[in-house]
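=== Discrete structure encoding ===
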Amino acid sequence: MTLARIVSTCAAVMLAALFGLAAPAQAQEFEKNILTGGATGTYIQFGRNISEMAAKCGVTLNVVESAGSLENFLGVRKRRFTQLGIVQSDVLEYLKTFAADDPSIARAILGVRIAFPLYNEEVHILARKDISSLSDLNGKKVAIGVEDSGTFLTASLVLDLAQIAPAERLKINADDSLAALMNGQIDAFFYVAGAPTKIFQSPDIDPERFHLLPISDPTLQAVYLPGKIPAGSYPFQPDAVDVVAVKAVLMTYEYDPGRNPYHRESCRAVSDISHVIATRFNELRETGHPKWMQVDLNDLPPGWNVGACVNAGLEPSYQLTCEGDIPAAPPQAGSPDSAANSAYRRAICAAIGC
């Protein structure tokens, strides 16, 4: 089965499930959710950071675990009370590339918008110590993540672009992959996450048996962002490791406040969270996951527009009462590529001092 068909099938299955979800009973407070990732990943830590900051502004944002990027993208598109989700940029590009030829993917991306660009996610490959390069994965058993995850798509693309042919590609999650590697059932596994990520901080990973594989393939370096996992990011990793990376992006939906009460309240939820991120950005960088220090709010992925509800929350007149002072962040530069993105950039510069 081709990678395009795999992604298309995943999208169709997820859409069918999401279309079938019934709306929960009406609650006193309108439900607001952000889809993140697994319990040991960086997505969920970012989600918790945003949720904690939102709570200081009287906004309750539920942080929801998920399989990863593809589920998050489709969840934002069709799942009730799911206004936000974190997605890998290569998932965005892959979906947009195949939308012209696949109606199910075209429907999946309809109405999805950017909320904020986030950080670069490094492609981690934890392997046996005797495996020294990507090419050594030929003929080996390699875990590539579950099918609804960004890790699955990235790992599949990396292996195909580098022309690596493992003996077996196992579709299991990161926790099961780590257990299988340590038990000798597989030879390596992929995990795409912003370093440092919790799963690799286990003291049980023996540096005499395992290491992070460098990624130096010229084709991959041309397609992906350059990345480096700094020395000492994990207990077993004394030296820096050169890898490739993808951008993590916070996604939302283009809600129409005039359509119905659900759209109106969802748009307000997106505006509230956008206001929180923009006005509390320095505090997020100071107290949140270390990857917040690498977030450039002007680094918008090409070909995707910022949502109108996001821009509404960035207006100087937007009202939301929060605890403490509103901090400012260092200036960051960028160039607009649409009217919506231009408005976003002006508002971000006003909020964080470009």
The beta strands are 33-35, 62-64, 84-88, 112-128, 141-143, 168-170, 188-193, 210-212, 225-229, 241-253.
